[in-house]
Specification:
Two copies of one chain form a homodimer. Chain A has about 450 residues and is α+β, with helices and mostly antiparallel strands. Chain A has 18 helices and 16 strands. In chain A, the strands form three sheets. In chain A, strands 1-5-6-11-10-9-7-8 form an eight-stranded mixed beta sheet. Chain A has a five-stranded mixed beta sheet with strand order 13-12-14-15-16, sandwiched between helices. The interface between A and B is large, with 106 and 108 residues.
């Protein structure tokens, strides 16, 4: 017989881990709902026609594809096999597992556009699948927690994303973090003024390395990527961009005198900052980072990324504005903006920093123990009384030795045990044992429920 | 451009439906936890070696199989194609989607047996996938809600299953239902006394039709299935089994004088009834139904099935005891017993009977509306005040015409709207509009929060 195993990159979640994950989910859910987002779900299975081409060529390779059911070979001709797996795949597989929550959400919006009240705000907490090489902190099946608004250009959404990030991290107890904000239009503006329009990604990738490799190496890399000396002359002030939000934006403003796109990006980040100021909070962890690109993928406006400082863990959250996601499904002109939290990263940070509360488990409150069949019958009555009063109670299922039953209570972190003997039964009482202190006292069931916050 | 679509047998859940489903999940979760069950999750993906052979040949056909990633053809030879899809499948697919929650749970127990405190009680609320032909009420991706105990033979577990079913249905407001209970050993006993050992399934299938086709047709069917006249002579009293629990068990006792297995099954259902009586509840909806077989699959003891009466919807819940599920993974001798609720069926019954509470939605409590940029800035302050006090508040993201903003509040079922004009702003007040009555009144924000349970 084969030893059973889990597929690489997947995990079981035991009760202990579930409670901690639920603490994270519940914190996020509560904050999303406070901001007016409503829950939604889409299936794990999507037609490959919906998924393919939305995540770049690499993304297409990372889609998990489902073999058609029944005789999937019935319409395949033998030459199909010889043309290689890439050509064969669409003939034997029509469906795949969803790769993220955003593209299926865009599909949902398009399919239900006549039923939705816009702006439509939804959140989604569901697993996604990527056939990536598994490694520490990277799984093939993992949950995303997304909140998106579609159907409005208002920069209030961007400001609220910053606030939600701050509230979620505060709610989880994560104090040291940085929220990096950028705008796709600022990146376009930079490329424009450098005379290197369309090279936003090259530019961002190079700038991103400034801290690590220094300005000379960045300059070399930009030259390799086809930037001219003239381009670089114009970009130098940007590479040295320093200071707080005000200082950075003033410098950019000067630079963007000839780029309308750049000016607009700058105006957008300023409006977001104004809205945040109007809300009356300080944002010590928010910074403008013009090297932030997030692969650019489908973003067209604001871009966000969140990192915990002081721990070696990748980004906890990321998002931005996309003006044309539903366009891929035939509905142009619907602007969306969203944020996604990675629960695994949040979990790892919280574990590393010891931030999980002691009491995340919804544990059984009292274990009732019987020592023979007669007290077991009495135990059934006691059990019902506790449960009728809404208490989480268990009767150990067999009247075995007390030690075994107490061991079970300890292993399950059950704080109280009711010991039932013939005297307790005769008087309709229980002996209540506090598993922390070891103290034991006889009392009525009503007293036990009242005195011990059972 | 292709119109986007959903794979057959899958569904999106809009916020309205999500809230109703969450009402069902939360009711079940709360009751499971009151009975000492802890949450757990296993991945959607399982190795096919874990799933295959556990659900019969038909089940194997209904497994969704995942195409291996990368060049899945690299080790396939051309003769492999000619031997048909069944032979090719294991060469190009190693993983599948889980078909139920029980088999992956058994795998989990075996893999983690040294870490778990037995008896181990867990619940699981997760989707499963079956490549079944979709039809009304039958989906290819659907949620199951399971609670199982492993590591004890105690019939307390069976009694608690009956109680949990009663509590869940009461919690959902479903009043007319029947819980059918049987025991695999009773079925074996019947086959035994009829001299037709091993034909339990044939027998159960035939008895099951008694109501519909009458005793003569059942007799014919049994003859077709190889039962002799002698067999049938002995079985006749069973086919006419009538009366309440006591009456049925007395008749069976008489019948089982020569079948130890039958006696044991009878003793088990009696013990369950005794435990239930000790708990002090009446069970008007519980009945002994010796025709209940549930395909027998892996059950070895008790069998349960729940149906709503008065509506044309299949079984709401089913379960039973299985003595050897972990045996398939190399760990024999671990008895388990469990119950599974089908959330889609529960949903359909509740919808048909109009049982969903009005207020399942966690809706935004107040929508703040601004009519120009200046009051929008004030709106941001008001918004923050409500949210800081834990209220679910939204500011309409653009200062458009009031009518459009009120339409949004109506579409979203938001009960209160704060209208902000320059006077309100000057006084630090809001005009609070009750969307149900149309009443509108100016007041301070503190007053709004206190007076209206916002």
């Amino acid at each position: 017989m084969q030893k059973p195993s889990l597929p690489k990159g997947t995990r079981d979640f035991s009760p202990e881990i579930m409670y901690r994950r639920q603490f994270i989910f519940n914190t996020i859910r509560q904050i999303f709902e406070r901001y007016g987002f409503q829950p939604m779900e889409t299936p794990a299975l999507e037609n490959l026609s919906v998924l393919t081409g939305k995540y770049g060529e690499e993304g297409d390779q990372l889609l998990f594809k489902i073999l058609n059911s029944g005789d999937f070979l019935s319409e395949v001709q033998s030459p199909d096999f010889e043309s290689g797996y890439k050509k064969l795949t669409p003939k034997i597989s029509e469906k795949g597992l969803k790769y993220d929550l955003t593209v299926p959400f865009a599909r949902f919006v398009v399919m239900n556009r006549h039923l939705l009240a816009f702006p439509f705000k939804r959140y989604q907490i569901q697993p996604v699948w990527r056939a990536d090489r598994p490694q520490k902190g990277r799984y093939r099946e993992f949950y995303q927690c997304d909140a998106d608004v579609v159907g409005t250009d208002s920069l209030l959404c961007e400001a609220e994303i910053v606030r939600m990030i701050e509230e979620v991290l505060a709610g989880l107890g994560i104090e040291s973090f940085v929220i990096k904000m950028n705008n796709r239009k600022i990146l376009s503006g930079l490329a424009q003024i450098a005379g290197a329009e369309g090279k936003e990604t090259d530019l961002a990738v190079a700038i991103d390395k400034l801290d690590k490799i220094g300005i000379e190496k960045v300059r070399e890399e930009l030259v390799e990527r086809g930037f001219t000396s003239e381009n670089l002359e114009l970009l130098l002030p940007v590479l040295n961009l320093q200071g707080n939000f005000e200082e950075k934006t003033s410098q950019l403003e000067h630079l963007f005198s000839t780029s309308e796109t750049g000016k607009q990006g700058l105006a957008e980040v300023r409006t977001v900052m104004t809205y945040l100021a109007n809300m009356g909070f300080e944002h010590p962890n928010l910074e403008l980072d013009i090297s932030l690109a997030r692969g650019l993928s489908y973003y067209t406006g604001a871009i966000f990324e969140v990192k915990a400082t002081g721990v070696q863990i990748g980004s906890l959250s990321g998002g931005g504005r996309y003006d044309n996601l539903t366009g891929a499904f035939g509905l142009p002109g619907v602007s969306g903006v969203g944020i996604s939290f990675g629960v695994d990263r949040l979990y790892d940070v919280m574990e590393e920093l010891g931030l999980f509360p002691e009491n995340t488990a919804v544990s059984t409150q009292i274990l009732i123990t019987a020592l023979d069949d007669k007290t077991f019958a009495y135990g059934l009555k006691v059990l019902s009384l506790f449960r009728e009063n809404g208490k989480r109670a268990e009767l150990y299922p067999e009247p075995v030795k007390l030690k075994k039953q107490l061991d079970y209570a300890n292993a399950r972190n059950i704080p109280f045990v009711a010991v039932l003997g013939s005297e307790e039964q005769a008087n309709g009482e229980i002996s209540l044992k506090n598993m922390l202190t070891g103290e034991q006292k006889r009392m009525s069931i009503a007293e036990a429920m009242m005195s011990y916050e059972l």
